[in-house]
């Protein structure tokens, strides 16, 4: 198995809990992105990055502060899987936008995105996280569909061979 690093930003704790569930299935420890620099990615072949979308399509503050680090990061040769949390009912026009923004930064840094996820089963109007008809990573909604989270995580990891 590749050397995997799991990183998250979280305000309410939902993204941290999702990161912990993913990490537990892989026998790993998730790491908070807050206060780190991009060199934390250097030792990993596969990165799993998680972010909630704050307010109306905004980056979560810890990731927002990390943007300059992402702009300086060199992710060439690294595979990157994303997971995002959002509320598809209260924010249907910006559902998971932060995951879409993070995906753009990963690609600009030379990372290879893996782990796309179908949009079936979600009700939203628009999302920057949808590319070619699929989410760029695992879509989770702890506000409206918390009962689906565990199965979605298990399926997503299996589809990536993890």
From TrEMBL:
Its cofactor is FMN. Keywords: Electron transport, Flavoprotein, FMN, Transport. GO terms for molecular function: electron transfer activity; FMN binding. PROSITE patterns: FLAVODOXIN, FLAVODOXIN_LIKE. It holds the Pfam family Flavodoxin_1. InterPro entries: Flavodoxin, Flavodoxin/NO_synth, Flavodoxin_CS, Flavodoxin_lc, Flavoprotein-like_sf. Residues 4-161 form the Flavodoxin-like domain. Belongs to the flavodoxin family. Low-potential electron donor to a number of redox enzymes. PANTHER family: FLAVODOXIN 1, FLAVODOXIN 2. This is Flavodoxin.
